């Protein structure tokens, strides 16, 4: 993830007095450089943006009670939309967020270096204390027509004084500069995409990523009982380079785990509990284990694609190799953090797939049979790659 550290000085205003400078409070956006919007309904110019991580940080002694937060969408300097969080709404958004403390001596650090305290410590309490950060729950905003800036204004009280701070971050619409071909041949199911009801949209690096699998005519992704990887229709399919580029990471040898598959007689609730335990164990061995076998390709334009969860022993490219669009680079599998065979495909702005910000993906040569018009891929789409 890319982060910026935005220092905001709060002006403390007493009734009938001139403004004076109050103690320093900071606002941090994560990601930092810009926020990216994704189309919800392209013909009507309806888009969505997620304010992923907003941290309000207190560096100095003294308390500030947060009384309200405004999130504004602007275009050409004019405020078009406003979300105002006050009262019970503010407390709810804070209770769904977190309280955090610095992991380093200096509090002047980006969001990545803040460690969450137990959620119960927040309890929706809007009081900001020294060397603590209040994290707002992620905010999804939808809008119609052009917007180019997100502005956040924080209001509060310090003793008998009113305080206010604001910060802005650019908002960009539009897709990747690189136009990609679909990384698989034929008809595929984009089970998870950038639509907000699926999990990717709420994670910075994979915000616009796809999880791609294959369905049968009966709407199933496997034959038989589905308790073996080989039962899945997608398993072993060739994964293709989606554009010309240079391989900057290629990892093979990570195992697959059939125990991560949902059992035929297992409820979703029981499966979630069991899989979460497997996931925690995987993370405990290092975050990179989540990717399993994977390839990262630098496709130019500061756009890097991750192709993840390959079948063990199938990765066909090496670091430093230049590949052309359509080149087979491995086989679809289920290594790493995978509940069933699928390809995880994401594009982001940095070479480390666990430390970057996602970019919406522009595809060519695809057909969406159930779409009324050409549009970006959404969660649940059937995609036919020509």
Structure characterization notes:
The chain is mainly β and 386 residues long. The chain folds into two domains: 6-172; 179-385, Distorted Sandwich (Glucose Permease (Domain IIA)). It is 7% helix and 41% strand. The chain is built from two helices and 28 strands. The protein has helices spanning 87-95, 268-284, and strands spanning 6-13, 20-30, 35-36, 38-41, 46-51, 53-58, 64-75, 78-86, 98-102, 114-116, 127-128, 132-136, 139-144, 149-158, 161-172, 179-181, 186-192, 210-213, 238-240, 245-251, 293-298, 304-310, 322-323, 328-331, 343-348, 362-364, 366-367, 381-385. Strands 1, 2, 3, 6, 7, 8, 9, 10, 11, 12, 14 and 15 form a twelve-stranded mixed sheet that branches. Strand 1 and strand 2 form a beta hairpin. The longest helix has 17 residues, at 268-284. It is globular, with a radius of gyration of 23 Å. Residues 1-23 and 105-110 have low confidence and may be disordered.
Chain-wise SSE layout:
Layout: E1 6-13, E2 20-30, E3 35-36, E4 38-41, E5 46-51, E6 53-58, E7 64-75, E8 78-86, H1 87-95, E9 98-102, E10 114-116, E11 127-128, E12 132-136, E13 139-144, E14 149-158, E15 161-172, E16 179-181, E17 186-192, E18 210-213, E19 238-240, E20 245-251, H2 268-284, E21 293-298, E22 304-310, E23 322-323, E24 328-331, E25 343-348, E26 362-364, E27 366-367, E28 381-385
Parallel strand pairs: 3-15, 16-26
Antiparallel strand pairs: 1-2, 1-15, 2-6, 4-5, 5-13, 6-12, 7-8, 7-11, 7-14, 9-10, 9-12, 14-15, 17-18, 17-28, 18-25, 19-24, 20-21, 20-23, 21-22, 22-25, 27-28
